[in-house]
TrEMBL record:
Major subcellular location class: membrane
Record keyword Repeat present: yes
Protein name stated in the entry: Two pore channel protein 2
Protein's GO biological process: calcium-mediated signaling; endocytosis involved in viral entry into host cell
Reaction catalysed by this enzyme: Ca(2+)(in) = Ca(2+)(out); Na(+)(in) = Na(+)(out)
Keywords, alphabetical: Calcium, Calcium channel, Calcium transport, Endosome, Glycoprotein, Ion channel, Ion transport, Lysosome, Membrane, Repeat, Transmembrane, Transmembrane helix, Transport, Voltage-gated channel
Residue spans crossing the bilayer: 41-63, 92-110, 122-143, 180-202, 253-275, 395-417, 429-448, 469-488, 508-531, 543-563, 621-643
GO molecular-function term, one example from the UniProt record: voltage-gated channel activity
Length: 698
């Protein structure tokens, strides 16, 4: 009936608008039952369950055998780690697999059979689940004693496929690889040529005393390549040059030329190429996201224009304001955008909206998120107004910065004076007294600012929240210190009491005071610009962090599979290297089981290897691959996005004056908004008519 059709059109419009908000594709089923399933799937509860499942299955690596549940990684002193019984982690894993099976089933049903065969990610999702379940069955059949578990390497895929931005980023990286390969090939040629020169320059001679360079670094082709590859990262500089330089100063020319050509030219050229190419591909990705948003809004207009209440004899399609208001009530969207669109509709003098008017309304989604600070309280008393003016003035904040600087200087003076003293010789009276004075000032400053600005306005500024939180923590610590150890006095060195000694409590207070000094950042324009750029990267470029997690996880699991059990302790002063793995960390991890535990592998080995300080024999392929992916490719990609974000913010700073009561917040899509092209009407209509499940009347 007419009522049922209208309800269907309303629900379709709701889903299409929500798709536009989230930059999702609208190529899914649009019947009543599928729409209900679609909204349920993308509800916060379902997405939270899916995210929790991905987190759990990734976290299993920390407790699976070999377990990372040990305090120390030193094989000499570490107690035997707790390993879960067979079937415990496998049961959790099976529950996660069941959630993923439901996930892929719902996704496949919603997009339809025809779209399923075009979606490579879904097909890879199903293949990953089949391989993982098969490996899980094999693991149980061997009673969890098998050495290789393929499904552990495949786990990061579940994180990857769940993020559309991560998939776009990966696609952009893949498109950039040909250009990067040319520079990497040039690096390889540079490395090979200088390796041959090195082997000729530092060849073995009759005088064994003069062959230190040959013995240590250029004994054969693999060692020569390795030495220069590490020099390319500056990890063994100047160690690799010292023997030759001691023999003849002229040999330094070789190493200087190699470093200048490799580091200053080729590596920076690689960064420039990655920045130029990757920015272009990411821009295309964001352009497609904009097209999806415009397409979703246009699809909502088309289905709402099909409502029976709209006049059918007009040449042009229209949507009634009343129908759109009804849709907006049910749409899950940001309250700021919803309020702005609703206000615009109520102020509109017409009852019908054309396609262009409809699209213009939803351009509110593309605007910066604006945070308006609450107004200050209005005092009637003339005295209170003067108080409000004095303590609400920026100069009062500058005075607080000066006091904080004085506190830092006093702490530095005391630390320098007490640097060489034994704990029993220290007199904590002076430091305790000045800390007490400064903390009381910080408390007074916070209370006066709240009085002048009002609590809501005070808390609306992130710098004030940061300052206030640290002030409260410092006050609590100071009260606890006085309650346990009494008030400061000359010769204040009481015995240890409670959880922390007096010196530990004072050190903790001093660290927080030093940390509190970061409050000066908002008052320094250029420093604030740099910090906000970094914060925006943290908030908006989660896709890069996700891809880094995927790479770290895959390499960590691979390292455990390849090198587990390579280090076996023999007493407290020696260890035995098993197999043919030769690992040395230059006094860094002589007794660290870097490949026997997932946590040690991730935290120390791979982070440390991003600067390349680990060399081994045949396992060099593993480490060189990690260096290429992490340091050469990923770090350069991060630098490219950092530059883009900073340049964008710098340009905006030059074109817009900062307003004290307004804060602007931008997403990655909005970062490129000024250079994006709007899709044409013909492109949108043509795409809508190709929708596999939506039949339009026009």
């Amino acid at each position: 009936g007419t009522g049922a059709d209208n309800d269907l059109y309303i629900n379709q419009a709701i889903v299409f608008i929500e798709d536009a908000i989230q930059y999702r594709s609208i190529n899914h089923r649009v019947d009543s039952r599928s729409l209900w399933l679609y909204r349920w799937y993308y509800s916060r509860t379902c997405q939270w369950i899916l995210s929790l499942t991905i987190t759990i299955i990734l976290a299993l690596a920390f407790i699976e055998k070999p377990s990372s549940l040990t305090i120390t990684s030193d094989v000499r002193y570490r107690l035997p780690a707790w390993n879960p019984p067979c079937g415990l982690t496998e049961s959790i894993e099976l529950l996660c697999f069941l959630v993923f099976i439901v996930d892929v089933s719902v996704k496949s049903y919603l997009i339809g059979w025809e779209e399923f065969w075009k979606n490579k990610w879904l097909m890879a999702y199903i293949l990953t689940l089949i391989v993982s379940l098969s490996d899980w069955i094999v693991s149980l059949s061997f009673f969890c004693t098998e050495g290789v578990r393929i499904r552990r390497i495949l786990r990061p895929f579940f994180l990857l496929q769940n993020s559309s931005m991560m998939k776009k980023t990966l696609k952009s990286i893949n498109s950039t690889l040909p250009e990067m390969a040319s520079v990497v090939l040039l690096l390889a040629v540079h490395l090979s040529l200088f390796t041959m020169f090195a082997m000729l320059l530092f060849a073995r001679t009759k005088d064994g005393q003069q062959d230190k360079e040959w013995v240590g670094y250029f004994r054969n082709l693999p060692d020569s390549l390795t030495s220069l590859l590490v020099l390319l990262t500056t990890a063994n500089n100047p160690d690799v040059m010292i023997p030759a330089y001691s023999k003849n100063r002229a040999y330094s020319i070789f190493f200087i030329l190699f470093t200048v050509l490799g580091n200053l030219f080729l590596m920076n050229l690689l960064t420039a190429i990655i920045y130029n190419q990757f920015r272009g591909y990411l821009l295309k990705s964001v352009q497609s996201s904009l097209f999806r948003r415009r397409l979703g809004i246009r699809a909502a207009f088309e289905v709402l224009s099909s409502l029976k209440e709209n006049p059918a004899n007009t040449q042009e399609s229209y949507v009634s304001v009343r129908a759109l208001l009804q849709v907006l009530q049910k749409v899950e969207m940001d309250s700021r955008c919803k309020q702005a669109i609703t206000t615009s509709l109520k102020m509109c003098s017409c009852d019908q909206l054309s396609a262009s008017q409809f699209q213009k309304l939803f351009e509110e989604l593309d605007k910066d998120a604006i945070k308006q600070h609450p107004p200050s309280p209005e005092y009637q008393s003339h005295f209170m107004q003067k108080i409000q003016f004095a303590f609400g003035h920026p100069y009062f904040g500058y005075l607080g910065n000066v006091v904080a600087l004085a506190n830092i200087v006093s702490i530095c003076v005391v630390l320098v004076m007490d640097a060489d003293k034994q704990p029993s010789e220290r007199d904590d009276f002076f430091l305790g007294a000045i800390n007490c004075f400064f903390i009381l000032y910080y408390l007074l400053e916070m209370l006066l600012k709240i009085l002048a600005m009002g609590l809501k306005r005070y808390l609306s500024y992130p710098s004030n929240r940061f300052d206030g939180l640290l002030t409260v923590i410092l006050l609590v610590l100071e009260i606890a210190t006085f309650a346990v150890y009494g008030f400061p006095h000359p010769g204040w060195r009481p015995e240890f009491m409670g959880l922390l000694s007096l010196w530990d409590m004072v050190r903790l207070v001093n660290m927080l005071i030093v940390f509190r000094f970061l409050r000066i950042i908002p008052n320094m324009k250029f420093m604030a610009l740099v910090v906000t750029t970094l914060l925006d990267l943290v908030k908006n470029l989660r896709a890069f962090a996700g891809i880094l997690v995927v790479v770290f996880y895959a390499f960590a699991i691979t390292g455990i599979m390849l090198f587990e059990g390579a280090v076996i302790p023999l007493g407290n002063t020696s260890f035995y290297i098993k197999k043919v793995v030769v690992l040395y960390f230059k006094e860094k991890c002589d007794f660290m089981d870097i490949f026997d535990r997932f946590q040690a592998e991730v935290i120390y080995c791979l982070f440390y290897l991003m600067s390349v300080n680990l060399i081994c024999r045949w396992a060099k392929i593993y480490f060189v691959a990690w260096w290429l992916i992490s340091s050469v490719i990923w770090v350069n990609l991060f630098v490219a996005l950092l530059l883009e974000n900073f340049i964008h913010k710098w340009d905006r700073r030059c074109h817009r004056e900062p307003l004290s009561d307004i804060e602007y917040q931008r997403t990655v899509e909005l970062m490129f908004r000024d250079v994006l092209e709007e899709p044409t009407e013909e492109e949108l209509v043509e795409k809508l008519h190709k929708h596999p499940h939506l039949q339009l009347c026009r």
